[in-house]
Fold this protein.
Amino acid sequence: MKWYDNAIIYQIYPKSFQDSNGDGIGDLPGIIQRLDYIEQLGVNTIWLNPIFVSPQVDNGYDVSNYFAIDPSLGTIDDFEDLLKEAHRRNIYIILDLPINHTSDQHPWFRDAVTNKNSIFKDYYIWKKQVNGHEPNNWGSFFGGSVWSKVHSDSDYYYFHLFDKKMPDLNWKNVEVQNSMADIAKFWIQKGVDGFRLDAFIHMAKADLGQMALSNSEKYPVDDTFFANLPELKKYLGGFVSQIKKENSDIFLLGEAASANAYQAAEYTQPEENGCDMVVSSDNFGEVYDDDNFGDVPKFFRPRKLSLNRFKNTFVKWESVLANTSFPALTWGNHDISRFVDRLNLPTDDNKLKKSLAVMMFLQRGIPIIYYGEELGQHGLKYEKLEDFDDQRAVDLIQNLRAKDIPDEQILELLNDQDEMTARGPFQWDDSQFVGFSNAQPWNWAEHSEENAQQEQSDPNSVLNFYEKLLRLKSTDCFTLGNYRLLKTDDNLFVFERRTSNDYGLVVVNISNKSIDYPLPVKFDCRIALSNQDIKLTNGQIHLDPWGCCALVNDGRID
Ligand code: GLC
Ligand code: CA
């Protein structure tokens, strides 16, 4: 067994967790101040979004120096203190490592463009223009073409899947694989326990001469050409083998946004040099509601929770990964609005928030909790369309206005769906800047009322419930037990977890009606967790609207 088989991960967006020096930007000393809170919550692993030196074009995912901490977040001494203080509390730290691209300010790229004989030229992807145009029509995730020129009179373009200030690395080049492994080893020596491999599924690209076939867009974004391609496993292996050779305990969490369950299994085969777990957006358990906004790109489309879709997704992920790796269990991250806004939930009742947490996290897999989720915190609500300034949002506003969709409707859509709303300050208390800072936070707008101080003193709060839930999750039954989803009617989500000693049963009612559910097996059980007052009568469990419970055997199983 590895330490991370029991991992319960807490994702911290460092800029938005706690500001310690009054500049409105969260920082590492701020996180240290809050470690007691994190320990009390019951998580044992922290994933930090990127903390390396960065021009912050993409909030740290554009790295210009991988060997130092961004000055806005602190110093290397602060980082060492954080590691020491976290480890003292038996909390592991994993760092976010952008490996698919660097910043255009990184010395490799600077040298590649200023030095004619640069050895770093081949660290990036270049292609000559064709008839004065880009070499192909592929679209970037951040809008426009994947190709840009450094100088307008140059014959060559460089490739960037994300922002044009984030050139992609050329992973065909073994030196790139080695350099990235050296970076990882530097941080391992400092004592970090693992990495999130950012956007790793994009490291391999198809033949750059292929054209995307969509007729409707000038630059279609088509994963066919740059996601989950076969060479990827070779590149990943070249990098991972160097890390794992001497540090087999390092946890590698791959970000595989568009991977399906089968691809996830391939990336996590235990005997190969891959990841230990991958997190994909396919297992969010959501449906896209295509009716209202047919023309809205997938990224912004309103979604609503469908229990059926959730069941089908998880039965698939659990089955496909059963003998390979743990599924990632998560309701969200920094790339998507908070799930309490995004999923168009039928009620904002705390009971439902608790039931959704039970339904997700007690399954087989490793929970990843997005900071603030444990409060039931909602996203920020911006006041006007101009507050959304990233290219994707700007394009969307333009397109919807052209279709005469009223501004208020666009604003509502963006407030429910845009990722920036999910990157607001953690709400510590009800003071002016929510206890996050005494200055205006870098990302700020109208916010919801939930806050940690109030919830700590309320025994029925979402926060207190998460604490109990995570304690239950860390028992063998809910960490290691087999998983079986039971066939039930549409409003119920029921699954069993079994080890040789334990039997756990989880029953969740996602409806506004009470339900009586007969126990599927006879067993002497105790109620381990519930968000209502549960009575077991005649082998039946009575569940209130939005009610849930987790039952565990007390010894004997029939
Ligand atoms: C990942 C990150 C996202 C970032 C992108 C480029 O998808 O989660 O925030 O913009 O990679 O690094
Ligand atoms: Ca600060």
The pocket of alpha-D-glucopyranose (ligand 1) is lined by residues 58, 61, 98, 162, 198-199, 255, 257, 334-335 (CB under 6 Å). Residues 362 and 478 are 6 Å apart (CA to CA). Residues 174-190 form the longest helix (17 residues). The chain is about 25% helix and 20% strand.
